[in-house]
From TrEMBL:
The lineage of its organism: Bacteria, Bacillati, Bacillota, Bacilli, Bacillales. This is Predicted dehydrogenase. Residues 9-123 form the Gfo/Idh/MocA-like oxidoreductase N-terminal domain. Residues 135-258 form the GFO/IDH/MocA-like oxidoreductase domain. Pfam families: GFO_IDH_MocA, GFO_IDH_MocA_C3. SUPFAM superfamilies: Glyceraldehyde-3-phosphate dehydrogenase-like, C-terminal domain (SSF55347), NAD(P)-binding Rossmann-fold domains (SSF51735). It comes from Paenibacillus macquariensis.
Amino acid sequence: MNNTKKLGAAIIGCGTIFPLHAKALANLQGVELLAVADNDLSKAEQKGLELGCSATDDYRTIVERDDIDVVHLCTPHHLHAEMAIELLKAGKHVLTEKPLAANLDSARRMLEAAANSKGQLGVVFQNRYNDPSVHIKQTIESGELGRLICLKGVVTWHRDEVYYRSSNWRGRWATEGGGVLMNQTIHTLDLLQWFGGNIATVQGSVTTDVLDGVIEVEDSAHACIEFSNKARALFYGTNAYLVNSPVELEVVFEHGTLLQRRDSLYLWKDEQETLICDPASRSFGAKSYWGTGHFLLIEDFYNHIRENRRFWIDGEEGFKALKLAMDIYSSSKARS
């Protein structure tokens, strides 16, 4: 690709996550947002007016436009596959919000389309760009604290009836693909599998603790994940808390333990705790408990496109977190 060419971009889906993508694009050099789409035309037109671009309620018009190189999918989960496949067949680069798809079959079709496309498929797992996540990964790979022994991830957030009633696709198996595992905690599942490596076995269960009768899916889940390297991860996630607490991560090595609290990372070693990284706030408009890596990921995706390099969080990487969530559902069903 010509590195001097300005890249034309579009965003499909003008919901909750839309502003982060729009703001990132506005701050990227050599990128122009040309179109937005939403099945609610008035919502798309409002965003188009605000951002100075065209608006439509039919995403297929974006598929047909030769001036659009990159398309961001910020749509409900069940729409990712259909849209991504059409866009990839047209040679577009596609950056989709998590999860990759609402089910494994749809995800596999996306991978196939990406393999046969001139365009790239990227998945938004922005927490891999958080400073603590980067440091943890580097520590694992360097071996400086010895062998990885175990790790845990805890997510205690709040989603109530109003949240689910506000969008009719949420809380339904057919459209969301699951509950807390698929929407809120899949980022933490992704980090656990990214840190731990190849997964050997998964045991877990899902429950609906406080939203029974409101949603079809689970609001709470836990899992024990055994990795091929003999490390073990414990996971707990829930939407049944009454506040949105920061994600908690703990990674235990032979010679020390790394603990993430909010956006800071601490090392516990030799009976002493040391602050390892305390990143400056760069939320870029994101809710603090989401993590702050959206801009970095989006910028990196465009850099890979310009340099004709394969983006490292591609469809195959996105498939891993989806597969882990589905394995937890399967384990829970087998236990019931």
